[in-house]
Amino acid sequence: MYAVAPERCDFLESSDHLLDGLRLAGVGVWRWKIDTDLLLWTDNLEAVHGAPPGGYDASLESFKRDVHPDDMDEVWRAIRSAIDSGEPYSFIYRTNPKLTTTIRWIETRGGVVTDEKGERWLTGACMDVTARVKAEMQLTRRLRQQKALEELGSFALGEDSLQAVADRAVRVAADVLEVPLAKILQLSNSGEEFVLLAGIGWRNGAAGHERVSNDPSTMAGFTLKEGHPVIVSNLKLETRFTGPQLLHDHCVISGMSTVVAGADERPFGVFSVYATAPRAFDTADAEFLNALAHIVANSARQIAATEHRMLLVREMAHRAGNMLQLVNTLAHRTFTPDQDLALAHRAFAERLGSLSRSNFLIAKGGWTMTQFAALAREVLEPFRDRVNMRGRDVLLPPELCFDLGLILHELSTNAVKYGTLRNAEGAVDLSWRIERDADGKEQFHFEWSDAQSKGMERCRQTRGTGFGSKLIGLLVEQKWGGVIQTDTDNGYRFVCRVPLHNSEAARTLSG
Fold first, then answer.
1. Spatial contact of 483 and 440, defined as CB atoms under 8 Å apart
2. Bridge partners (DSSP) listed for residue 194
3. Average pLDDT estimate for 59-66
4. What Cα–Cα distance (Å) separates residue 315 from each residue in 309, 322, 397?
5. How many other C-beta atoms are found inside a 10 Å radius of the C-beta of residue 475?
6. Label partner for 273 (CA 20 to 30 A): which of 120, 159, 243, 476?
7. How does pLDDT run across 219-257, given as a tens digit for each residue?
8. By the 8 A CB rule, do 122 and 31 touch?
9. Of the spans 37-41, 55-59, 102-106, 180-184, which averages the highest pLDDT?
10. Could you give the CA distance from residue 328 to residue 334 in angstroms, rounded to a whole number?
């Protein structure tokens, strides 16, 4: 039942019932002759520690080898204190990970006794308390997380700078989750990449310059696609995606990320934390990171709403003036002496309707950056099933979106009159993206393709001299300084490129 040194310990074998009870209860008993290397123990002590049988050799060194190296000094101080004071001892230590398959938490209690020969022994009992210790640690961790969330939430509620909230959020994440690296990536206006909004722990030069593709092959892009927290145990063994070079440069092994929601269906970005040592992030960690992301998202919405209100007051008069000027231009160019009045009235009403739909969508967002995809769906609603749309979730300046709504209306009207939309089965393709020119400046690239389909009446659409074509030219080339290209080799293809750096100082539409 137990192992002893050659010098036997009679008291341990005085009661088989007692030893059976200790074994069944998972309690090991040991006895050390003070100031010697002699250690006696019941044979279940190895099992209590999760060590393989036969590892103890009736010596104090066996016990020392079983204790986690980081805990040995503290354990020995407790032992010496008990010996010097004669008071009972009680302490908890971890097992040595080199000797056991998994680390266990062991609690030992006991004290000094003197036998009939006057020899002093330090004796006690050990039991596995891993479940209890982990539960206590989990509770402590959750309480700490809860306190951190309350403090960050209070800070964000009174803060009018999103950057300040983001900076504090990454510090909180790194501190509470005890990781060296954390960052918040914001989805760019082009919708094709993330830019680093806030980070902590990254080497000099990384913050403010990092750009990460939102393709699902990256961790951030995969997180965006999944829509829920993603946990990585070992980045080198990850098969769902690849980590950007920046993570490998920082020796990242484990990580966790979650989506930061946006004000609408478009996400704001991704919140991530990383560890440079193996780390088993659990559900509680994911919930905490998700809660931090919610605070950042709510702060972004709150700050944006405040800015929207201030912007609307300034913009209402300016936009109203531009609107009236545009309506006046539409009327002046539509109602010409040689135009049939009924046709002119219908064309004018349709243009006003398109203008109204664009204005409603943009005004609903507070005349701020607007999703082009939403604008296209709104303007082309009558042809929803006949327009094949393809493009990133890009954001564009509101005034540019307003003008693009008119352009989409003119293109779809011409397609109904002269293109494939004349036919019941006809369809057109609409694609868009934001790209950079040779100087690194962003341009909005927009293409409308009304291709010739087999068996259909030949498309007669061209870039003509009518008011619709002139209006498109005035908007793209004169107002926004863009470029238009058209060809009619196979149907009708319209391409325009608008420099986005002109958005803040757009030219006024004349005529």
1. no
2. 187, 212
3. 76
4. 10, 10, 13
5. 25
6. 159
7. 999 999 999 999 999 998 989 988 777 888 889 999 999
8. yes
9. 180-184
10. 10
Q: Give the tokens for residue 428.
A: 């057109």
Other residues' Cβ atoms within 10 Å of the Cβ of residue 16: 9
Q: What is the DSSP string of 187-198?
A: E-TTSSEEEEEE
Distances (CA, A) of 379 to 277, 349, 357, 359, 392: 52, 14, 6, 10, 18
- Look at the alpha carbons of 302, 174, 204, 440 in this order and tell me if their dihedral is positive or negative: negative
The confidence score (pLDDT) of residue 502 equals 55
Confidence at residue 504, expressed as pLDDT on a 0 to 100 scale: 42
Nearest to 151 by CA among 162, 159, 139, 161: 159
3-state secondary structure 228-249: CCEEECCHHHCCCCECCHHHHH
Closest CA to 293 of 278, 276, 309, 273: 273
**Of 491, 422, 509, 489, the residue nearest 454 (C-alpha):** 491
Distance of alpha carbon 230 from alpha carbon 478, whole angstroms: 48
Is it the case that residue 172 has pLDDT exceeding 90?
Answer: yes
Distance CA 503, CA 148 (A): 41
Whether pTM exceeds 0.90:
no
The H helix count followed by the E strand count for the chain is 13, 19
**What is the C-alpha to C-alpha distance for residues 164 and 166, in angstroms, rounded to an integer?**
6
Radius of gyration of the chain (CA): 36
Token pair recorded at residue 36: 């010697």
Strand order across the beta sheet in which 428-436 lies: 387-391, 428-436, 442-451, 491-499, 483-487
What's the rounded Cα separation, in Å, for the pair 324 and 337?
22
* Measured distance CA(511)–CA(504) in Å, rounded: 21
Look-up: residue for tokens 């929601």?
261
